[in-house]
Amino acid sequence: MLVLIDNANLYEIEELYNSYPYDGVTTNPTILRNEHQDPLKLLKSIRELLPSDSQLHAQVISDTTEGIIEEAHFMLDAISPDLFIKIPVSAEGLRAIHKLKQEGVNITATAIYTAMQAFMAGKAGARYAAPYVNRLDNMGADGVQVATDIHNMFRVHNMESDVLAASFKNSQQILELCKNGVGAVTAAPDVLRQLIKHDATFTAEENFEKDYYSLIEEVKGIHLKRDDK
Ligand code: E4P
């Protein structure tokens, strides 16, 4: 399962990449607004910061097929030809996905709230479909179930699309999707940090360290680490 960072802050992205090799970055207009700077320049800087095999996803604003296609071409030219273009699922969006797919463009269908929207996006040629897990949960639906249904539909129909589940509030939602085999998730830095955090691990590490130093204090002249005297 690919794990991406849903954020556009260069420091956060760098910090996260320093601790673990992530698979890329996803953005949307709200995430870009939070950085209060030229979005195009920022997206270019993110692309330069990321390793070449990491994905970058950026979203179009237009809501007509022609507008979406023009904007996608502009973004691909200005940022990178391997950019994943995020397109919200609508009738106009699906037409744009179909046409851009024929040009070989990587597309992530986004703002997905139902499994059928994702299925139609996959049929149109989207590489990824992004259901909004936590927003679905907040509506009284089951976000993990919707994302899992989409994953299963893609596999049953032998489609070349994967789920890129988005909108998470906690690591449990990601764990469930990992168990269910979805292809990718994208989450905010605070949620990503929770994926490996456990107080019991920290306590265990502290206790092992204490026991080790008590042993080398007790039996003089022994050491495991080169710099222990
Ligand atoms: C990503 O594609 C979505 O735009 C984003 O994850 C939505 O997350 P939110 O519900 O936390 O805003």
Commentary on this structure:
The chain is an alpha/beta fold. The protein folds into two domains: 2-188, Alpha-Beta Barrel (TIM Barrel); 198-229. Helix content is 51%, strand content 16%. The protein has eleven helices and eight strands. It has helices spanning 10-19, 29-33, 39-49, 65-78, 91-102, 115-124, 133-138, 143-156, 171-179, 189-194, 199-218, and strands at 2-6, 24-26, 55-59, 84-88, 107-112, 128-131, 162-165, 184-187. The chain has an eight-stranded parallel barrel, surrounded by five helices. Bound molecules: erythose-4-phosphate. Erythose-4-phosphate is lined by residues 6, 26, 28, 110, 130, 132, 134-135, 166-167, 186.
Furnish the topology, listing elements before pairings:
Blueprint: E1 2-6, H1 10-19, E2 24-26, H2 29-33, H3 39-49, E3 55-59, H4 65-78, E4 84-88, H5 91-102, E5 107-112, H6 115-124, E6 128-131, H7 133-138, H8 143-156, E7 162-165, H9 171-179, E8 184-187, H10 189-194, H11 199-218
Parallel strand pairs: 1-2, 1-8, 2-3, 3-4, 4-5, 5-6, 6-7, 7-8
Helix pairs in contact: 4-5, 5-6, 6-8, 8-9
